[in-house]
Design brief:
Layout lengths: L1 E2 L17 E5 L3 E9 L15 H18 L7 E8 L5 H10 L8 E4 L9 E10 L4
Length: 135
């Protein structure tokens, strides 16, 4: 099932070939996959907080959390996360955000690389799972 972001415009609205998130629903488990998410102005496709890593991290994580909670998930349900940092120095802003939000420093695998827009300094993708499967 395609899942939209409560805080961002639908990706399909600007002819993108991805969805903000998708959820697989099974009788005993729900698996939510949140696509790469970055700092976007509300109801827009424009980059928010150009040049400000702290605000980009906060904006991005608020958007991810809104997607999670819209489907009954929370940070504790995250089973996989990958963070993309444009510069190694931006790790401090990410780690500060984690500490301020009571999340472990190893919450996500971190990599330094370019993201798809020059103005983005930070991006994250996550999977969250709720429920259990009996084998």
């Amino acid at each position: 099932e395609i899942v939209e972001s409560p805080l961002q415009a639908p990706a399909m609205a600007y002819k993108s070939s991805f969805s903000r998130a998708a959820e697989i629903l099974a009788p005993e488990v729900r698996h939510l996959m949140v696509s790469g998410t970055a700092s976007i102005k509300p109801n827009s496709h424009d980059v928010a907080y150009v040049g400000d890593i702290e605000k980009q991290v906060d904006c991005t994580m608020n958007a991810v959390h809104a997607i999670l909670t819209s489907r009954g998930h929370d940070w504790k349900d995250v089973t996989r996360a990958i963070v993309y940092l444009k510069e190694p120095a931006f790790r401090a802003a990410w780690q500060n955000w984690l500490a301020a939000n009571n999340l472990a420093p190893a919450f996500a695998v971190e990599t330094v690389c370019d993201v798809c827009r020059d103005e983005w300094l930070f991006e994250i993708e996550v999977d969250a799972v709720k429920g259990s499967r009996k084998i």
